[in-house]
Every structure is written in C-alpha cells, then in structure tokens.
Amino acid sequence: AKNKPLLTAYEQDLLVTWLASLPYNRPQEQAAIKSIPDFQKQIVTPTNFTQPQHQRSLTNQSNRLRRLLERAKNPPQLPPPPVTPGLRFEKLTPEEFPLLQLPFEEKKIAANPSE
C-alpha cells in the first residue's frame, strides 16, 4: 500500500498559513499590534453555561400541559343538583289540564268496579 499523506497539498498550505498567522509565532509583529489600540487584547470572562436561561424560567413555572392533565384527572367537585319534586299528576285538576281526563270507557270501568 502506498503511503498516502494525511493532508492534501491544499490542506498543508492552509495549515501552514494558519499557523504562521498566529501571534505567538511572530514576536516582532506582536509588538506592532500592541501599539494599535484597536488590536489590544481584551479581557474575556467566561460565562457559566451550567443551566440555560430558558430552562430556569420553565422550572419556576409549572408545566401548562401537566396542569391541564391534572385538572382533567381531578375535576372540581360540584355540589349535587337540587332535587325538584316534578309534576304531581294527582294534584292537577282536570280543569287546568283537560288532556288528563280519562277516556269515556275508562271512566265507566272506574265507576263500576264490580263488573
């Protein structure tokens, strides 16, 4: 098997160019860069990425879907409906509701129970 180079010629040139552009490889030019105020090193403080901001806000709030599921699982208890007496047909008078009057044959049977 041939010994294939790890990097192509283009990648080798790119790596050499990149390494040459690093400031610690050119101490003479680094002094020139420090004299220009825009290129002075800025102090960068790393931030803490232990917990993203949006997850912190979610832990303070309860989960909306979980609240809906809990409400569906445990619906509010309503008082029992009031019991209404309803219509009492025996107290209605035939004058008020003529349809409740018995037909003629049934009246006749009710009048003569001995037959």
- Strand tally: 0
Low-confidence stretches: none
Q: Roughly what is the average pLDDT, rounded to an integer?
A: 71
> Can you write the helix and strand succession as a string?
HHHHH
Query: Helicity, in percent?
Result: 40-55%
Amount of beta strand:
under 5%
Structural class: mainly alpha
Beginning-to-end CA distance, first to last residue: 124 Å
* Radius of gyration, whole Å: 48 Å
Largest sheet: none
Number of helices: 5
Any overview of this molecule?
- The chain has 115 residues and is mostly helical.
- It contains five helices and no strands.
- The model has no long low-confidence stretch (mean pLDDT 71).
Quick description:
It contains 5 helices and no strands. It has 115 residues and is mostly helical. The radius of gyration is 48 Å and the shape is rod-shaped.
List the helices and strands and how they pair.
Blueprint: H1 9-21, H2 27-35, H3 53-60, H4 64-73, H5 104-111
Structural features:
115 residues, mainly alpha, rod-shaped, 5 helices, single chain
